[in-house]
Amino acid sequence: MDHRQPESDYVDGGGDIENDGRGSDASSFTEAREPLLNLKSRINTTSQIAIVGAKVYPIESLDYEMIENDLFKQDWRSRKRVQIFQYIFLKWTLALLIGLCTGLVGFLNNMAVENIAGYKLVITSDLMFNDKYLPAFAAFAGTNVILAICAGALCAYIAPAAAGSGIPEVKAYLNGIDAHSILAPSTLFVKIFGSILGVSAGLVVGKEGPMVHTGACIANLLGQGGSRKYRLTWKWLRYFKNDRDRRDLITCGAAAGVAAAFRAPVGGVLFALEEAASWWRSALLWRTFFTTAIVAVVLRSLINFCRGGNCGLFGQGGLIMFEMHSAIPNYTNADLLAVVLIGVLGGLLGSLYNFFVDKVLRAYTLVNERGPSYRVLLAAVITLLTSCFAFGLPWLAKCIPCPSGSEKECPTIGRSGNYKSFQCQPGHYNDLASLFLNTSDDAIRNLLSSTNRNEFEISSLIIFFAGTYFLGIVTYGIAIPSGLFIPVILAGATYGRLVGRLLGSLSTLDLGLFSVLGAASFLGGTMRMTVSLCVILLELTNNLLMLPLIMLVLLISKTVADSFNHGVYDQIVQMKGLPYLEAHAEPYMKHLAAGDVCSGPLITFSGVEKVGNIMHALETTGHNGFPVIDEPPFTDAPELCGLVLRSHLLVLLNQKKFTKNRAVCGGQVLRMYDAFDFAKPGLGKGLKVSDIDLTPEEMEMYVDLHPITNSSPYMVVETMSLAKAAILFRQLALRHLCVIPKTPGVRHPVVGILTRHDFMPEHVLGLYPELLHHK
Amino acid sequence: MDHRQPESDYVDGGGDIENDGRGSDASSFTEAREPLLNLKSRINTTSQIAIVGAKVYPIESLDYEMIENDLFKQDWRSRKRVQIFQYIFLKWTLALLIGLCTGLVGFLNNMAVENIAGYKLVITSDLMFNDKYLPAFAAFAGTNVILAICAGALCAYIAPAAAGSGIPEVKAYLNGIDAHSILAPSTLFVKIFGSILGVSAGLVVGKEGPMVHTGACIANLLGQGGSRKYRLTWKWLRYFKNDRDRRDLITCGAAAGVAAAFRAPVGGVLFALEEAASWWRSALLWRTFFTTAIVAVVLRSLINFCRGGNCGLFGQGGLIMFEMHSAIPNYTNADLLAVVLIGVLGGLLGSLYNFFVDKVLRAYTLVNERGPSYRVLLAAVITLLTSCFAFGLPWLAKCIPCPSGSEKECPTIGRSGNYKSFQCQPGHYNDLASLFLNTSDDAIRNLLSSTNRNEFEISSLIIFFAGTYFLGIVTYGIAIPSGLFIPVILAGATYGRLVGRLLGSLSTLDLGLFSVLGAASFLGGTMRMTVSLCVILLELTNNLLMLPLIMLVLLISKTVADSFNHGVYDQIVQMKGLPYLEAHAEPYMKHLAAGDVCSGPLITFSGVEKVGNIMHALETTGHNGFPVIDEPPFTDAPELCGLVLRSHLLVLLNQKKFTKNRAVCGGQVLRMYDAFDFAKPGLGKGLKVSDIDLTPEEMEMYVDLHPITNSSPYMVVETMSLAKAAILFRQLALRHLCVIPKTPGVRHPVVGILTRHDFMPEHVLGLYPELLHHK
């Protein structure tokens, strides 16, 4: 039987998926030259492609289902106790390794940034001190642009998937979407170095999102189940050749990334739980906790090592940790009102931020899709703009006399600190320069300081807020690894401090506390997380007494912002065309049956099928799952034998164990295959149709599909509501869901197959536009 | 068709489930007089009963499935947008109310304990000061025994389900098990007052577990969907008449309980997530977070109110919050070794604790099942023993001279504080009395203090450790609401301080820190939580710098203890015979098919069935779900129409809309019923078979089951492995799972029904004992 089955998810559009350790070659892809609108509409109707760096790539779903075919069942039965211990041992060893590597990378990233950006700022400030303003600007902007061009070139030419935050991609992967090379080794390489260069270039970008992506990439690399190319085919590693175990590792990696970026181990676990992961188990909680504990230990040891001055400029600034020692007074009702105000405004500004980020991202796609050189150019332009802002705006600020008693630290020349001299005469400082001409970490530290209430002028705070808000929006989307946490915290902390200054004596709260609350409100307004943000902020500021106020602000800002748009990561996932499965079903899905959306007939195989038929189906369709039907004379009536996966079919065909006659071979056929040959290889490493070379005689022969047919696919009856089927599909993390007829025996045993794509609102509403009114 | 269906879960064994607001009457139950062993074996083979206060009660599963019958579908379609807003508004209002009530109860609980226990201790210490030792003991022990008898009587006579911690019961409820009256209003009442009395009686019990149970009971009460009895039939509340929404509320309640007990809002959320809940959604994270934030606000306001001295003795001790201000030095490798040692020993002692608690619980069951009066007697005996320990052991300690410079606070007479005078002359204190003759909160606070390194003698610490370890074990299981957190923290903190003292100058760490680590190791060793315990401890001690060490200790102690036995709550759940569904399938389940465990034929109904047949099936079986089969002449071949629930059948029969002829009525029949009549009422409030009174003529009539038949039950094919079916069952929180034949059309459309009971290891291994070797 050969029919169209439009519901299957798309596989390789010509052997494109390539991330086999040698770095994916971006230029081998056909460029999508349609304008953005066309592109969007294509995405909306098919959902089979993802936009990575303005290119359109095929995506694939992951196999999380327990596949029960005869071969695998035999393998389970023969598995010995020692192998189970090996598996457990390896699981924890890998978690340990992920923690170690991510901690190390996080530390190196910080050290490199502190040193590169530090020396750049020292040189600039030395030149300024000697009144060489133009050379200072040239040095400052020149270094920045060169660093940004390097970062942009890495991104544009080597790994376009490394651009941006990376959190949306990790989130999508953990939802079961394997988009092009998002966790490839080349992406890891570019993410690490691109992030260092980009942050050092003074751009308003963070290193937190990239760290999450880096952690996930490290986990993916470790969970590849060895590599034949590099002869790393250790037997034990083979147990991890499946998507379920890889998913667990990558969740650990994401948690480790947050832990390394913020030195927040508990926050990392909660981030993985609340934002990153789509499926969660208690056992995983423990494992991620272990991983982040390792990260914390690694970071602590390395920082202790650096205390001796072994790490250059690192240690003066260093890993983010904004200790707040301010005592919290018993806040009054007026204070609570101020906190509510901050929450509401933060929610509004946060949702506005998301709105603009979305618009700018769409606009940049037009530039980015013109080619890698345009992408590098855009990055350079934005860097130049940022440099002009950073160097130009401080001229607007007045010179402020240093506060009495702080002669030692004011003004700071040639090192980090609160009080930057800039153009001012001795004994004075420029408060705007203290924010702009500093690393982001130091700027945040300055904003959160509570020693000097009048350290920053109101006008300076306004200028800095407007500057970072604007730069944060225009920077995200350029071809550089760019986190969103730091821009949001910067803008939020400034806004919080501004509110505190404006309220003046109306509130008794500390200005540093106002800054933290402002940052919390902005984070809540853009990212829409609650518990994890709360814990991350507590771990950053190391002050638990702020907990109730931070909770309040987060709840308010999230509520306010949620009434306008989605969280920024969800927005990016959607914009990239990744078919993300939500945890809940849309309300209108209650009005449809599962059978309503799987339109048209489908391709099925017989239990013993002709090789030529299989090859034809694999070549002409992109389907990844095919129902196998046992028919008379082998059975009394046609019955659903199960579901066979494309990847397994390819391995089967490649081994060429065919028979001349159409006959079921029975048990002895199992001995011909090794279950591990059918284990899922790492991303993009599997066989392709083009790899299989069959003679015309072989094409006429038969092959028994029973050993590799998953005999217990999940099934729903065609009358089940789409909402209920969606919950089943999502809860069990399925890739294929068979729809069977209400009346058995009379009709064909399978009505259709539902895949991720069929549950996408675009698809369903495309079929039934009238349901929009029910929405 | 009338066959045996042994797989269904048990329902009322004669109209027993009764918690309709008037307090369940324990004496109306038939007493189980078999010795414990028989009882256990019955539980193991049937899993249909639960032990509550040594009695055997029926249990019922909860309906979390989306039931799609024609009536409900019609109701969805007619539901308007405003009703959805009403629902959302109500959802958040209920979360708010749960937070408010739980916060208030938590505060009142604390205030009452502080005052009752406080005055008792003041009187005792005054008498001691005047050398009236015997009257002092009489007053002390007498008060304790009277308080314990009151608490025990409340528990034994009014609500046996209120005894113990309550966390295992909440955990079981959230896993889908509705055991007898575990969340009834009477249980709430007894839990609150029993806990106050029990803790005030100086027993080594905590108020944390009972607070979790209290929070869950409050949530359940608020989520009843109104009460006809009290005319609270507000229309909006009806949206909560289903088990799914109730489950969410009770999760919020459990989180609020922890938040109120420890003043740990984030810890409460994580506790609910890690320990209490079996199913979790991101949306729930936010809602529990909101609830615990409300609790934090309520507690803070009330404590502020008490600062003025409005609350008697409360405020000197007050809600647990052991602030630690000790600076953490840069710990050396020797310190790390000490920490590892604490973790390993804590894991060993913790698992030993679990072992003994289990043994003692089983022994107490023998006493408790003899009747309520024996239960009260046992409580009184244990209280007397505790009083003797508390009053007798301090005589073993030497009087220690007060440290210089602390004349003001040493010795303390007639108030709480570190240095108790007891029998000592002025200027001296008895360190053991400072621990024993104090509330548990104050004792913990003393143990965690880091001001005076030699405050407690090594011998005193050994005696106190042995005493609390022993008393903690023998106290759990008596008929009094008794939490496990405080006993474990007490013993753990003593043990930690002891290790610190013994190591002496080998370690540079603070003794208070040693105590915290000891408590962490014990908690990890008994309760086996990780992230939530970590956060709770951080929120309790308000010192984030201890994070890495606490993480390390928790990981080690949990790992060590897990190799010996299960966590204490899992152990109690198992001992109570509650059929708890684990998140993972047992390994041997891979070797069985779903069809293997659903033995024998089952009872099914026709689409239009004779009333008499239905009544007969309901009366003679305890099944809760019956497959409905449409047969010729209504269809071409027998087909599975769906599944009908006992509760819906009862409502249908009660309305008596029968027809004379066997005919499908079609659409107009829907107008005869109101969907809300079929909504699930609160626990134990539904109709029973005995409520239905039919005439012989009516018994001969027919009723159309189609409107109430869930037309899309979840189905698996009989050849699916039991492991895969178990995952499906657990992930989707099912109550019934239909098993269909591999070959459709030829055989009966349903092979059997799987319920929770069929996945229990006892049941499976009972059927296939040879699988034990595979285990």
From TrEMBL, chains A, B:
Name-wise, this protein is CBS domain-containing protein
Q: Where in the cell is it found?
A: Membrane
Can you name a GO cellular component term?
chloride channel complex
Locate the coiled-coil region(s) and give their ranges. none
> Which GO-annotated molecular functions does the record name?
voltage-gated chloride channel activity
Q: Which InterPro entries match?
A: CBS_dom (IPR000644), CBS_dom_sf (IPR046342), Cl-channel/antiporter (IPR051280), Cl-channel_core (IPR014743), Cl_channel_pln (IPR002251), ClC (IPR001807)
Annotated TM spans? 87-113, 133-159, 249-273, 279-299, 334-356, 376-397, 461-490, 502-523, 529-556
User: Where are the stretches annotated Disordered?
Assistant: 1-29
User: What's the superkingdom here?
Assistant: Eukaryota
Task: Tell me yes or no: is NAD among this UniProt entry's keywords.
Answer: no
Membrane topology type: Multi-pass membrane protein
List residues of the CBS domain.
709-760
Family, similarity comment:
Belongs to the chloride channel (TC 2.A.49) family.
Keywords, A to Z, come to: CBS domain, Chloride, Chloride channel, Ion channel, Ion transport, Membrane, Repeat, Transmembrane, Transmembrane helix, Transport, Voltage-gated channel
